[in-house]
Amino acid sequence: MTQYPLSRPEPLGVHPDYRRLRETCPVARVGSPYGPAWLVTRYADVAAVLTDARFSRAAAPEDDGGILLNTDPPEHDRLRKLIVAHTGTARVERLRPRAEEIAVALARRIPGEGEFISAFAEPFSHRVLSLFVGHLVGLPAQDLGPLATVVTLAPVPDRERGAAFAELCRRLGRQVDRETLAVVLNVVFGGHAAVVAALGYCLLAALDAPLPRLAGDPEGIAELVEETLRLAPPGDRTLLRRTTEPVELGGRTLPAGALVIPSIAAANRDPDRPVGRRMPRHLAFGRGAHACLGMALARMELQAALKALAEHAPDVRLPAGTGALVRTHEELSVSPLAGIPIQR
Ligand code: HEM
């Protein structure tokens, strides 16, 4: 029996078994750290799992995703409405000029010899996330200083991270009620690691483009971002679901209570995925009730970052190639590259 998670052979690739499973056994019984589960690998089936209420997120508490992911509609929809109006493209676009300034300042400061995640991806992501969260609760970003210590991927002593979290909650809690605070904290925790991971993968893809060619080409940048999200979603995110009743899926009948792993990484490479207005669609931001609340922000961040890098650090390169790059952890959750040595 296949054991989930399958490893990633190279940073922008996925394990070849995903293709084999998609072609021969698209709803496969697998072993997983959570016990026996069903791994779903076709685009249509993954989209069906994510949009069908019989696949419950709340009944799959093995993957703690915060208050929003851990709740099913209709309660979930009520919670999501507390902030959803502030998360769409129009609102996020207002933050783009400031995000671009942050990205330019960081790109200009990239040293001759450095590491991309700590020099650019982390500070860029937590600064823009602070802007966004500040805008959600009505505070200037500079009042959210503790956020960086709360979300950073760098090692921080537990006591220090705990104190920063308590202080962040105090500051946010003065602005919003308890329930909204829980949803905003979901955004804080959901909004950093995935962006840092995607920034790393987008850098690798942009260096292949090559990077200077993207300067002055916003459409090319937007396409590169979408294609990178499709081919290398920040983790083969476990979007665990559990069936609430027997369900037919991909020619099989799953019993009630079955644990289901819809694989975005596999679905995004399915040759049968539908084509959108200009490009094949992808599921990197999920689908349905729990579709990513930060997708407009994430897209804007990735585009602003690549624009700044192409225009202000076009000479960035990887001295050791991609072979030596390792991920922070295996497939199960968002897994940024542990470090990307760069030179210019
Ligand atoms: C490239 C970056 C990102 C990727 C690939 C990504 C991916 C995803 C995916 C696949 C889901 C659905 C999970 C499921 O259905 O089980 C999700 C949900 C979510 N994401 Fe993101 N995300 C990204 C960035 C962000 C950012 C920047 C934020 C916040 C500012 C954010 C906040 C959330 C929240 C709050 C949810 C839960 C939504 C709900 O349950 O209603 N994400 N994300």
TrEMBL record:
The source's superkingdom equals Bacteria
In its UniProt record, a GO molecular function of this protein is:
monooxygenase activity
Q: Which InterPro entries match?
A: Cyt_P450 (IPR001128), Cyt_P450_B (IPR002397), Cyt_P450_CS (IPR017972), Cyt_P450_sf (IPR036396)
What keywords sit in the KW lines? Heme, Iron, Metal-binding, Monooxygenase, Oxidoreductase
Its signal peptide is none
| Family statement | Belongs to the cytochrome P450 family.
This chain belongs to the protein called: Cytochrome P450
Could you read off the lineage of the organism from its UniProt record? Bacteria, Bacillati, Actinomycetota, Actinomycetes, Streptosporangiales
The UniProt gene name for this protein comes to pbtO
